[in-house]
Amino acid sequence: MEQAYARSERIQADLTLLVVAVVWGSAFVAQRIAAPHMGVFMFNGLRFLVGALLLVPLARRVKNPWREGVERSTAAGVAFLGALLFLAAALQQFGIRYTTAGNAGFITGLYVVIIPIFLALGWRQPPRWTVWPAAAMAAAGLFLLSTGGQLALNPGDAIELAGAFIWALHVIFLSRMVKRLEVLYLAIGQYLVCGLLNLVVGFSFEPLDWSGLASVWWTIAYTGVMSIAIGYTLQAVGQRVAPPADAAIILSLEAVFAAFFGWWFLGENLTPLQLLGSLLMLGGIVLAQSHEFKANRPRLFRRGR
To answer: What pTM value is reported for the model?
Structure first.
């Protein structure tokens, strides 16, 4: 009976994470639609504030947000995470203007390969041997996906790749901050910082186009509600039960769903070489996460979209 109950819980957790991957993959389509109509910073500012405000009622149920034995000197850390999120989201939204939703999804997913390399270079934590073939697969896949076999890197893909490096840093520092502050409070704090930074820059450098806002308001609502607020919450629920192996594989399907929804809604097609590149990148992402499959510890929370 207990085994059947545990198996049922695991299936429910896996299905929850699959929903998260679908939502996050579809968010790239909404971002792609909004890109020509709204400034990068105004769009990001509004959607991150929506996501933060929707998480507030959930966070109020946490009686003590501060980790036991840790001083309340985390404001600077939360602000730093918000600044990293601001940079990463800006690069992602700017890059998606010049590339497809599918490309953006796959290239953003490369942060999984970049993380262990950063840990080796900056924190003296040697990566497992699987990281190097994973990085080679991801690099080869990126070349085929972005160029179609031609020696010319798509500018939008290059911007998305730069953003993947920032996403990697964000996850690394997030894994340290989560030990000092409850996850929901940490999420709300960094989302608020990110949203406010975006609005300050947006009001300073981007003219507010009310007609553009009226035409794509739903993309702000969708990414703020579904991708940031609900997607993040469901991820936390799913990863409480799902083993790291399940979470690693299912959440990496975000890139596949980004390509699928880009084809379904935007008519974005992949050539055979680009499809091969996508498969290589997905294989590299899963291989880079393979060391988690046998680990008996929770997997790092992914970055907010």
So the answer is: 0.85
